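Support request, please re-run this one:
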Amino acid sequence: MANTYTSLHYHIIFSTKNREPWIVQGIEQRVWRFIGGIARNHQMTALQVGGVEDHIHALVTAPPTIAPFQIAQLLKGISSKWIHEEFPSLHHFGWQDGYGAFTVSKSNIPEVIKYIENQREHHRRKTFQEEYLEFLKANGVNYDERYLWGLTSLVATRRTLLGGFLSRH
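Re-run finished. Output below.
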């Protein structure tokens, strides 16, 4: 084959650290636009970026030279630095350590765009945790829930285990 042709679309999802509600409505549009600019500045196209106070969704088209982990790393790293500089009152802001990345076929792009656009309405009925678990299950991703939600859930899991141990002894 003389040339390489690709059509790679990724739905990237990540939350704020401990799902803290840092991305308030007053700044969210600026954050979404900035994340779109990060994609553009790194040879990608952000087809849609959105979310709510505690997490984002980004539908990104990327060349084959950029792996999904690099997309998440760029979006999170550069936006975190910008948020700290642009909004000094958010000095405790941070993104979670991990992320979800799911491939999207070209025929499903309009549906995913609409899904991202309607995040606020969607989350009137469902928490981020419920949504994220549905994505993992629908895509056949194996996971261990003890490590899914970060330090907060690890502490809660340890308390639950310790409480059960103490009640038996």
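The longest strand covers residues 45-52. The beta strands are 9-15, 45-52, 55-61, 100-103.
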